[in-house]
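STRUCTURE:
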């Protein structure tokens, strides 16, 4: 297994380098720049700004300098957030996104997987149809629709009641301020996990080794938990890998609607302001987390399915 992980890490290095390279040059060739605002900047000031951030150098030199800074763990200064580096902005925003993301994943796993198992065990019954109906609703209703509806309901309609919840802001991570964002983040994952678990569980229950276990007289609950569930979780783990990476780096829509100071909101503001270094920093963070989570998922395959070998 160690050799397998080592090979995956070696493959991840050129993959990450390719992502960095493509994003770097795409940011530079896109129309506009970090100092293009509504009010035109005098040429002398613009020249000084470009020189201060080394944007007056040839593009190839800028690229090599950026790679050299990355090797030292330096994402560079933010072009729009004065007196802040990208490292500092990510250090401020990542804990916010990570807390909400981990809470959303935990809620999705606790609700979505049991719902999928119940639906599979009661296939083509009212319970199955109800679970799948909820799952389809969670999938087709986007977050930018669900979030305003929940704000309208819990912050305005239910105002001055025991069910009133804040409409947004972080407030140092107060529990009440996290309920609506976490639920909005988790809703689509609950829906997908329920559908994926149901489909994979139905397939697992029809496998020959499960039929053999039942024919030996093992209790049905033991057959489901010890034999069918482990195999059924393989597609679930596949989905959760990049899903966790996405939630850890923040949801751009949810964080913007609820005014949360997370990484996702920084990414939106950086893209709108052409803040090259901030966008690159968030992209590198997201890509690194996705690569790491995919490696973890590949390792978990062997633990869940004994047929998987790392040779």
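SEQUENCE:
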């Amino acid at each position: 297994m160690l050799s397998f992980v080592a090979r995956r890490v070696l493959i991840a290095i050129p993959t990450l380098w390719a992502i960095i390279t493509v994003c770097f040059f795409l940011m530079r060739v896109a129309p506009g720049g970090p100092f293009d605002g509504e009010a035109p900047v005098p040429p002398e000031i613009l020249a000084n700004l470009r020189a201060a951030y080394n944007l007056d150098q040839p593009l190839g030199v800028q690229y090599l300098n950026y790679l050299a800074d990355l090797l030292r763990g330096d994402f560079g200064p933010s072009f729009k957030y004065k007196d802040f580096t990208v490292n500092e902005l990510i250090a401020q925003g990542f804990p916010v996104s990570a807390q909400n993301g981990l809470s959303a994943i935990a809620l999705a796993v606790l609700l979505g997987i049991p719902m999928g198992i119940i639906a599979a065990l009661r296939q083509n019954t009212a319970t199955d149809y109800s679970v799948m109906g909820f799952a389809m609703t969670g999938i087709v209703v986007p977050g930018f629709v669900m979030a305003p509806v929940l704000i309208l309901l819990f912050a305005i309609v239910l105002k001055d009641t025991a069910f009133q919840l804040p409409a947004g802001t972080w407030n140092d991570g107060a529990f009440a301020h996290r309920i609506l964002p976490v639920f909005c983040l988790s809703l689509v994952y609950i829906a997908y996990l329920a559908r994926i678990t149901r489909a994979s569980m139905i397939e697992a229950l029809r496998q020959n080794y499960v039929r053999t276990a039942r024919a030996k007289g093992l209790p049905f609950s033991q057959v489901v938990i010890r034999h069918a569930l482990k195999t059924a979780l393989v597609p679930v783990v596949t989905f959760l890998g990049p899903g966790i990476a996405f939630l850890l780096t923040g949801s751009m829509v949810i964080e913007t609607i609820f005014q949360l100071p997370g990484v996702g909101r920084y990414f939106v503001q950086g893209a709108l302001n052409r803040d090259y270094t901030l966008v690159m920093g968030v992209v590198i963070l997201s890509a690194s987390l996705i690569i790491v989570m995919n490696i973890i998922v590949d390792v978990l395959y062997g633990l869940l399915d004994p047929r998987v070998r790392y040779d």
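REMARK: The longest helix spans residues 86-121.
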